[in-house]
Amino acid sequence: MPELPEVETVRRGLQPVMEGAKIIKAEARRADLRFPFQPDFVKRLQGQIVTGLGRRAKYLMADLGSGDVLLMHLGMSGSFRVIKPEDEKSPGEFHYPRAKDSTHDHVLFRMSSGADIVFNDPRRFGYMKVIARNALDQEPLLRGLGPEPLGNEFDAAMLAESCSGKKTSLKAALLDQRVVAGLGNIYVCEALHRSQLSPRRIAATLATRKGEPTDHANRLVTSIHAVLNDAIKAGGSSLRDHRQTSGELGYFQHSFKVYDREGETCKTPGCGGTVKRFTQNGRSTFWCPKCQK
Asked: What pTM does this model have?
């Protein structure tokens, strides 16, 4: 499942060919993906200008001139392929090695920019939905999402307030999309290691009794910002799925300090501990018990 840096990589790859261009033709080649397409899905897209292409958590959001928004989620194996007359590029591919079997090309957008944008999804866990912008606050898929971790409003005070009184583990709290939107298993493990905080730590310890942020909260927010920005600059992480816009693999996985590093020596200077793995809330957690407290 792609996390925030991978989705942001896809957004940046699609932006040059989508933003400011008209959807000359929209085509849904099957009745559903993860969810059925709306009966008027194609009609509400065709002929519309994409006035902006943004991201909310792990969703891509294309603003349309009509006042609608096209909401897109990549699911487990979804990818966008940009086809131009002169070349072919693949922004953030999520099926590696990249399959160009047209059997899995489920959605097509022909843009006035001269590009065809094809959504390929072998497992069909992705989905798309057209929503009126003035109804976004009521949209079940978006309602209740927490702040963007790279947004101006996300700081130690906000994180402390969200975690105050929580008896769950710190890792579970960070994976809760109501606390902070877009974080996933990889980057939570990495951010906790950078801030030297245990994934088992109680989330409430990020706040004082008065609800003010502790030093732990300040360190953690700094680490979240750093690891996400570093990952975006690296084009995301390629384990078996993700590729960059150019078709190259993302390379942030080479910078992992703990994720998928079980048994290796901790990279924190002067630590000398060993990276361990354990199952937490049904998912693998990687950490260094010596320096993460």
From this structure: 0.86
